Amino acid sequence: MHLDPEGDPAGMDGSSGTEPSWAVVDGTLVPLEEARLPLGDRGFFFAESVYEVALGGRGALFAWDRHRTRLVRSLRGIGLDTGPALAGVERALQLLQPRMGQRPMLLYVQVTGGSGPRDHLPPAPGLAPRVYATLRPFPTAALVEARGQGIRAITVADNRWPLATFKTTQLLGSVLAKRAARAAGADDALFVDASGHLLEATSANLFVVREGRALTPHTGRNLLPGVTRAILLERARDLIAEADLRERDLRDAQEVFMASTTRPVVGVTRIDGRPVADGQPGPLTRELALRFDSWLEAEIGLRVV
Amino acid sequence: MHLDPEGDPAGMDGSSGTEPSWAVVDGTLVPLEEARLPLGDRGFFFAESVYEVALGGRGALFAWDRHRTRLVRSLRGIGLDTGPALAGVERALQLLQPRMGQRPMLLYVQVTGGSGPRDHLPPAPGLAPRVYATLRPFPTAALVEARGQGIRAITVADNRWPLATFKTTQLLGSVLAKRAARAAGADDALFVDASGHLLEATSANLFVVREGRALTPHTGRNLLPGVTRAILLERARDLIAEADLRERDLRDAQEVFMASTTRPVVGVTRIDGRPVADGQPGPLTRELALRFDSWLEAEIGLRVV
User: Fold this and answer.
1) In this prediction, does ipTM exceed 0.90?
2) Nearest Cβ partner of B117 from A6, A48, A120?
């Protein structure tokens, strides 16, 4: 099944309708559908931008310190100034956090290299970064469905640039991989590098259960160090470890699951048309999903599923 | 020296000031600085967009058929529908061509996967593509300067995605390479792939003169098939051919030059700090630049330099 962030037509709490969606552009709060950006934005012309997605509720953001730290790392990774960018992000959060109410919301923040005449090389000393943020209802229904059915995945050759370790908007490779998955009757794609090593899904980290332990590819390879991945590694270190994994390790896996902010622990039940083990989300996957949900509830005071 | 597309403060025809710059958004003509796009554009979120840059004057576009053909190829390459995209491009051209007057102008056209809620996977059957176009004065002064002094280049490892053959806005690798060039006191970077093969510059094709002939990397490798490159290969086939070139072929080159729409034949005079031959644009480079300028003048009725 396909995780549609616009899902959740009726909330799991029984309410109908969705929370309004908001955006912050240039430090101003506007309804999401009214948000605009200048045609000269370097994020639009050159994919010169980085982003974060975080989960919020009751005015709080889950693991925001980690997202903020990674945002700084991504900004530095593509050579953008961090100071003005972070000030803009703080301003956006001030405006959006009061809108995080009784239902889980997704915060999206994108920082670009600024706006100016189209030229690969920005002027020196540089343009002011631009900050865009949106706040939308968390796709609860889609997560519930994914948790129940599991994800059908295909394996694909890594078609991204070599700096996928930074969370930039150079995402067309992931888009094409996800389209290829849909064309194959699947939901998502798992990237495999030229040496046959497993990397990650198109927008989630990957975990392979072997001998009762979940192993996830280490970040020395071309993959994004996920916040959800880091929390799992830290808080469930009895059950999860980093490892060098190859595509062939999928074949005799006891379980496979993926994890991201919008998909905090979801089983992968079919890969390239073949079931993983018995084709159902496995016990370790279910256990870690429950644990993660409890951490979310403790920190933002809301159940996400 | 750095090719600033905003250059040309005084026209080479002696006029002062610049032509006004225009944009077309959603089929409507607006001054460039007023052009906006929706925050939900997939070109902004995912770099899901392709583009073309063409040279115009006196209401005519140079080699537009080739640019249009390549645009179709790029659209197909990333799985976007061509019909509505081309209709939008035609509409933009109708609005902009009357603004191509007595001085050379640069047309920029960008087609995106449309606008919608942020989700890697677009809805099926798909969003309507969005077309953006701008018309700005051609950077004549910058070209004249580059032709006179030549380009100082560095070599860098190819840091792009494997589909650089399509003209998409996944350009952050080129931006970073150009920034690295500036940091090294140079103007541009030449991409070298993992096997040591020469590819192209950050936004121009590359030519290496050996034994009196210009050789340019063939398009089987990860590079963009340039329109200027194709025209040179076709009309100067006595002097230019495709070849497999390695980084080491730069060392004993008689001349090196690059070619693109904004840089139609410009000498590369220093590479990684060492002069190419005598460090001046060579005779074949100058000869081909003159030829190209004459073709431009014949087709758009204007001298660009």
Assistant:
1) yes
2) A6
